[in-house]
Amino acid sequence: MAKYQEQQLKIHNSLSGKKEKFIPINEGHVGMYVCGPTVYSNVHLGNCRTFMSFDMIFRYLKHLDFKVRYVRNITDAGHLEDDADEGEDKIAKKARLEQIEPMEVVQRYTVDFHTILQKFNFLPPSIEPTATGHIIEQIEIIKEILEHGFAYEINGSVYFDVVKFNKTHEYGKLSGRKLEDMISNTRELTAQDEKRNPQDFALWKKAEPQHIMRWPSPWGDGFPGWHLECTAMSTKYLGETFDIHGGGMDLKFPHHECEIAQSEASHGNAPVNYWMHANMLTMNGKKMAKSTGNNILPNEIFSGENEILSKPFAPSVVRFFMMQAHYTSILDLSNEALLASEKGYHRLMDALGLIDGLTASKSSSIDLAAWKQRCYDAMNDDFNTPVLIAVLFEGVKFINQIKEDKEQISETDLMLLSETMNVFVFEVLGLESPAQLNASSDKIGGVVSLLIQLRNEARANKDFATSDKIRDELAALGIQLMDGKEGTTFSII
Ligand SMILES: [Zn+2]
Questions:
Q1: In the chain, what are the domains?
Q2: What is the 454 CA–ligand 1 centroid distance (Å)?
Q3: How far is residue 321 from each of residues 324, 343, 359, 452, measured CA to CA in Å?
Q4: Over the stretch 277-316, which tens digit does the pLDDT of each residue have?
Q5: Residue 120, CA distances (Å) to 58, 201, 249, 322, 335 in order
Q6: What is the distance in A from the centroid of ligand 1 to the CA of 449?
Q7: Cα 39 to ligand 1 centre (Å)
Q8: Rounded to the nearest whole angstrom, what is the distance from the C-alpha of residue 483 to the centroid of ligand 1?
Q9: What pTM value is reported for the model?
Q10: Rounded to the nearest whole angstrom, what is the distance from the C-alpha of residue 235 to the centroid of ligand 1?
């Protein structure tokens, strides 16, 4: 029997605002689409939190024996600086400033994105499609929307007619906005505006001569509007209607609202049964933003090279910290919060290390089966990881009490305890133990020891330039040297 038949999962659906029983379209199968990054800069820590929430959701769905097709795209074209279809393409602008090809920008930051996600122990999605790889599909959808009368062409650009669409459909149902309110709250169109209404959005934009990212289309050379790629890729890989669509809260409007409108206007079906939105990450109580300096990159946390935190923190500690909040709650990052999470993470890992050494008794004084079901109950309740972690810490308490002979456990229950702890900590929450990290770094350990030896020789020769260089370059790679009474040790973070 598949686990999903024994466990009833409930999901908070942003569309209804309610927690609903999860019933997939095809039994045993789940189609999930998550809006990926626009690859024009290093991945933001707040975005990592969103993607980590969906990584955890992907992991739990798989654990429940669902066959999951998880599609997370890469936006490599069409995302303009301003949501109102104005300004430069974010990637083209970066390419212009750095005097490189747009695809070099895309390559550089796609690699950065994957490297950071790997450090956080993400599972790769089933498909990771790109916007530029699906221009033909996007053009086909525009043709359909034009055919159905919900878009208009003007000067080589095509816009979605929101006002006309709203006459027969409901624009704003996901974000809870009413078109009439939107109209009364927006500025009047100026003479230069091509749009019929300020709420209309671009499906295709004409490329000006200086615009380097351009493709031929029935309306002339241009590029697709940002909202369109997700409709094209989700429909192609998951069908006209699929189970779960996720993303950050900030994408609900206009991005996801526009996706719904595009699907309904092209193929006539509501695209998604369960809309899920992950909440923001703040830092020291304030919104994270590059412009205010209240910002930190994941690598700066791992290396300790920042002015915000007192020490480096390992990716698994940051992951544990993020899992301690529900994905729909705002989470605040601070030095104190990370220090507390680090302690909790080590308590959890220490207890896991004790399980194999525990001695079984004839019978159990703890109801292990009930405890195990509470782990599932927490996750079945809209992926409530903070509650799951609290239940896992009851497991930590059991382990310590059994070790001190204050509680007894039978052979079968001991196996159940071990299996359940391991499944939820490693498979579902996606944490890594320090031992797992060290096992992969035996060879690195040898190399670092050699470098420590060379550094000691340099110091003995008063060649501090070389000794500092070795220390600093290792730190940049995430390897910290610590000088103590017994010589130099190191930690890989
Ligand atoms: Zn999207």
A1: 23-278 (3.40.50.620), 282-437 (1.20.120.640), 441-492 (no CATH)
A2: 50
A3: 5, 10, 32, 32
A4: 999 999 999 999 888 889 999 999 999 999 999 999 999 9
A5: 15, 36, 21, 11, 19
A6: 46
A7: 13
A8: 48
A9: 0.88
A10: 12
